């Protein structure tokens, strides 16, 4: 028996898939919400998911983060299949950062605590180190001066940037955004999109559900159009917006553009 530390994992080559969904199906009772969804997201890729309300976009994100359990098919994160139980699931889930429409910050904790809680509790990072990282992240999202305030003392845009910092503190391999700007007043949308643009430029792998077509056009590597639980089409944004292939995508774009 060897007591030597295990060899470090070899570096993951760029372009290797981070998320792979294979024939994913999800139902709530008799209502099928995801129908044979196949999706591969490569390292460093930004995939924007668009589609009408009820298409299954949020459910897809929640299945990738294992907040919802799929009925059939498979999901792998960086080569490791979901679902898993207990600690292995917690570790895997920690690799997938999620930002919701409704911020979901802990309301009675300071912004700094919001960013440090999971790294300290889930990853066992010492408080001093977690706080140093949190301050860097708050600076990166432009709210370094808000560290000791409560979420309610921040604007919606600042709260959402705090939520992004909180997700990044876990050093995720991929970030999921589910309509991160839909609850914001118009003047605050860009400050959040700018943080997301910066994140994309830094090489983060991202899946973004949004109605911000400007963001989709300029930041996405691929646009995925969903309707009625299916991926109807997927294409680079220039191609998708200039020439949507499906009737349903044309119809949808006619309403939102
Ligand atoms: P989208 O995000 O594209 O608007 P959702 O994934 O939220 O779509 O919802 C897809 C469908 O699944 C909708 O018909 C919705 O009512 C249904 N749904 C979502 N979550 C649940 C749930 N927890 N229980 C029952 N039905 C749900
Ligand atoms: Mg939704």
UniProtKB/TrEMBL annotation:
Pfam families recorded: ABC_tran (PF00005)
Catalysed conversion reaction: a polar amino acid(out) + ATP + H2O = a polar amino acid(in) + ADP + phosphate + H(+)
Tagged with keyword Signal: no
Keyword Cell membrane: yes
Enzyme Commission (EC) number: 7.4.2.1
Annotated membrane topology: Peripheral membrane protein
SUPFAM superfamilies tied to this protein: P-loop containing nucleoside triphosphate hydrolases
Enzyme class: translocase
Subcellular location(s) of the protein: Cell membrane
Domain of life: Bacteria
UniProtKB keywords: Amino-acid transport, ATP-binding, Cell membrane, Membrane, Nucleotide-binding, Transport
Any one GO molecular function term: ATPase-coupled polar amino acid-transporter activity
PROSITE patterns: ABC_TRANSPORTER_1, ABC_TRANSPORTER_2
Predominant place of localization: membrane
Domain ABC transporter: from-to ranges: 19-253
GO terms under cellular component: plasma membrane
Alphabetized InterPro entries for the sequence: AAA+_ATPase, ABC_ATPase_HisP-typ, ABC_transporter-like_ATP-bd, ABC_transporter-like_CS, MetN_ABC_transporter-like, P-loop_NTPase
Protein family per UniProt: Belongs to the ABC transporter superfamily.
Name of the protein this chain belongs to: ABC-type polar-amino-acid transporter
Lineage of producing organism: Bacteria, Bacillati, Actinomycetota, Actinomycetes, Frankiales
């Amino acid at each position: 028996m060897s007591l030597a530390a295990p060899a470090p994992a070899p570096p993951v080559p760029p372009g290797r898939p981070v998320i792979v969904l294979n024939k994913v199906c999800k139902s709530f009772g008799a209502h099928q919400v995801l129908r044979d969804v196949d999706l591969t997201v490569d390292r460093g890729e930004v995939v924007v998911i668009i589609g009408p309300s009820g298409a299954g976009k949020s459910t897809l994100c929640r299945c990738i983060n294992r907040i919802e359990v799929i009925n059939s098919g498979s999901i792998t994160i960086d080569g490791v299949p979901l679902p898993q139980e207990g600690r292995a699931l917690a570790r895997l889930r920690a690799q997938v950062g999620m930002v919701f429409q409704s911020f979901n910050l802990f309301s009675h904790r300071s912004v700094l605590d919001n960013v440090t809680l999971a790294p300290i509790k889930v990853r066992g990072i010492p408080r001093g180190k977690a706080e140093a990282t949190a301050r860097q992240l708050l600076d990166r999202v432009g709210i370094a001066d808000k560290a000791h305030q409560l979420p309610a003392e921040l604007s919606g845009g600042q709260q959402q940037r705090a939520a992004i910092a909180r997700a990044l503190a876990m050093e995720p391999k991929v970030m999921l955004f589910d309509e991160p700007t839909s609850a914001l007043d118009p003047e605050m949308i860009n400050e959040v999109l700018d943080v997301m643009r910066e994140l994309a430029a830094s090489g983060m792998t991202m899946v973004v559900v949004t109605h911000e077509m400007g963001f989709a056009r300029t930041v996405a590597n691929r646009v995925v159009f969903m309707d009625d639980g299916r991926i109807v089409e997927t294409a680079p944004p220039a191609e998708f917006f200039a020439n949507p292939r499906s009737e349903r995508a044309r119809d949808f774009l006619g309403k939102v553009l």
